[in-house]
Amino acid sequence: MTATTDLVRNDAGYVCLSFDFDGPSLWMQRRMTSPTPISRGEFGAVAVPRILKLLARRNIEATFFVPGHTLETYPSVCQQIVDAGHEIGLHGYAHEFNPALSPEREKWVMQRTVELLENLTGVTPAGYRAPSGDLTVQTIDALVEHGIRYDSSLMGHDVAPYWLRRGDRFPDDAPVQWGEQVDVVELPFSWTLDDYVHLEFVTFRKMLMPGLQRPQQMFANFADDVRWMVREVSHGVCNVVFHPQVIGRGGRLLALEEWLDEIAELGVSFARMDAVADAYRSGVPFGVEAPVS
Q: Which of 47, 138, 195, 226 has the fewest C-beta atoms lying within 10 Å of its C-beta?
């Protein structure tokens, strides 16, 4: 597959498939480093080649967000992603939770991971997704400093990109004071379109994530969002988040294949996230809803 970043316009809309290839770093961040949780992360490296084959059969280009730790731990698997024509975006170094980091550590993480991706791909990465989807003002400043063109960590819309802001203020005796727009496009995601919360079983000290739905139930929910977008919105963008260590097992891959075929029949296009962000930056409108009559 040859990578392309020119977006072919499609009134029916676009679905961006993204895969957070966390590897063991997800469990390291949670301080769950006994053999069993780490092995769950290891499975991501087993799953990525399966996912690449599935995408190649349908000629779909996708975006992978990969922590620096994964880039260094599984270089050959990450090279396969690049060779297959997919985008790789930033996702922290060891899946750090940004609000828990010092400004100095955040700067180091961004610098280190940008260097690693530049060494792998030969170009500056276009996009970033915050581990656990949480940004800080320092994160936004680092994105601007490194020329990152888009972020995918926020949830302020469901079918349209918008410009990222910094410096929002929330006084408790007055309306919100919105901050300044920065030169970074936001391609929003949602936990409702994320496989992890639907499918994974995780026991935390104070919480149980039950997961383990039938994947067909999850994909029925995903398909309804796409159907609504196609019916109600012109040039909408639906971002869907997967994790190889979650979606990459047999029955779930079968369900993914069925869902891809189902939504393809709706006429949507599949697009890399950098292609959508660059088109938006050039002035192309997305997510246009008819006005209330």
A: 138
